[in-house]
Amino acid sequence: MPMKLTKDAMRILFGDVSKLREIIDIPRDVLMNASCSPELSETFYSDEPAEQDKALAICSGCKAIESCLAYALPSEEFGIWGGTTPEQRAKMRMKSDIVSPDQRHLVLEIRSDLDRKIGAKPFASKYQVTQRTYYRWLEKLEDAA
Ligand code: SF4
Fold first, then answer.
1. Helices (H), ranges, 61-115
2. How far is residue 109's CA from residue 5's CA, in Å, rounded to a whole number?
């Protein structure tokens, strides 16, 4: 089943995608001041509520919590980061222009295919949309340019 674009990702698709190309590194502050460590990976990536609570408790005392969350919102799909669960970050993204990593990749791939004008038929089959969508999106991109 092909991944669907979210509303926010759709808005970005027709806008300036150059920011999406930036490689986001884990901030130095997080690397230097993290209260977590690689040994705690199982706790931080667990689906068990009790383990997640343990991880959240560690985050709550972490000096890097703000920069960690700022990094994790656009960059981390899974695990506890910056005192949030993946579900909480997904909700936060919905209320902002920030898109998740998988949406970012999808937007960049679609934009690249539209820029290269790969053709309605292959586009429709690749993204499971109608051929009309291809022409509509191409037109939208040209209007936005
Ligand atoms: S906020 Fe949480 S996930 Fe981020 S560095 Fe601190 S302890 Fe680790």
1. 65-75, 86-94, 101-115
2. 12
Evaluate: CB of 72 within 6 angstroms of ligand 1. Answer: no
Distance 59 CA to ligand 1 centre (A): 5
Nearest residue to 86 (alpha-carbon basis) of 56, 63, 65: 56
Let me know how long the chain is: 145
Average pLDDT over residues 9-28: 79
Tell if the pTM clears 0.70, that is, is over it.
Answer: yes
From atom 5 of ligand 1, which residue's Cα is the shortest distance away? 34
- The Å distance, Cα 64 to ligand 1 centre, comes to 6
DSSP state of 39: G
d(Cα 46, Cα 64) in Å, to the nearest integer? 21
Closest CA to 97 of 25, 22, 27, 13: 13
DSSP label of 79: S
Most distant CA pair in the chain, distance: 53
DSSP code per residue over 7-26: HHHHHHHTS--GGGGS--PP
Q: How confident is the model at residue 55 (pLDDT cuts 50, 70, 90)?
A: very high
Q: What is the C-alpha separation between 2 and 79, in angstroms, rounded? A: 23
